[in-house]
Amino acid sequence: MSTMVMTGGTSGFGALAVERLQGSGDVRLILGARGGGDALPLELGELESVRAFAAAVGAELGGTPVDALVLNAGLVLSDAAHRTVDGFETTFAVNHLAHYLLLRLLLPSLADGATVVLTTSGTHDPATGAGLTPPRHADTVLLAHPERDPGLDNRPRKAGEHAYTASKLCTVLTARALSGQDAVRDKGITAIAYCPGQVFGTGLAKDLPWYMRVAWSAMGSPVVSWPARRFDRTLNTRPDAGNALVELVSGDVRPPEGRVYAALRGGELTWPDPSDDALRDDLARELWTESAVLVGLPG
Predict the structure, then answer these.
(1) Residue spans per domain, the chain
(2) Collapsed DSSP state (helix, strand, coil) of residue 118
(3) How far is CA 266 from the centre of its chain?
(4) Which option is the CATH number for 2-295: 3.40.50.720, 1.20.120.140, 3.30.70.2740, 3.40.30.10?
(5) Which of 54, 124, 146, 156 is 20 to 30 A from 165, comparing alpha carbons?
């Protein structure tokens, strides 16, 4: 039986992935979520909650190694003005810092040959043409405290878009930094940054203004989205995104040699190059080290 730990498994395509994984009958799945229920409590906007969740996972497993770690939760906000209890910009803290900390805390528990999947977005790459403000940098201090960023857009919506796309650049860089570590390679651990494409109708937009939430929900309807998907391969259905996630997590699909970035395009997994910045080894190393400082871990 495989043992998996997952965030972002209670709604959207993550919930569909969980349903399929649990239906297989040979997976022990530990979920982290706000709502509790069958999941262990986890508030990604609080680093202390992340630490408590990691400790609870360790206690529940009792030494059983983790075969797959799925860091799928995320959010997008309409500005960059929100702060977590730790004082960090919320989008960056939830999408990157919390998952980085959880990864670091659970890394010693990963089994030989384990898989780590971090959900990213094609919006990290300006070449995708997604229409959102592309990331200008992956500077942890400026992303954690955007009020210090001299290039911060004074338009709240654009600043919020940058917070999101930059956090997703950090996700790809984290996967690349992880895959480059000797200890990770020695254990045969696979790191994948997974872009599900544009998947309407998920909970990603729940913190946006009401009119954007309505549009997001409407575009999630098969009747509405089907014509658009015919012309834009970055658009995918929730079932397709969930199934692709399962294929990556279960090892049914393995990355080609040297590839870390998986992008779902037209319902099919592809392995393109990420953005130029995401391919920079110096940025990946800096992000790993500087993120450790922010969460209080050694680099």
Answers:
(1) 2-295
(2) strand
(3) 20
(4) 3.40.50.720
(5) 54
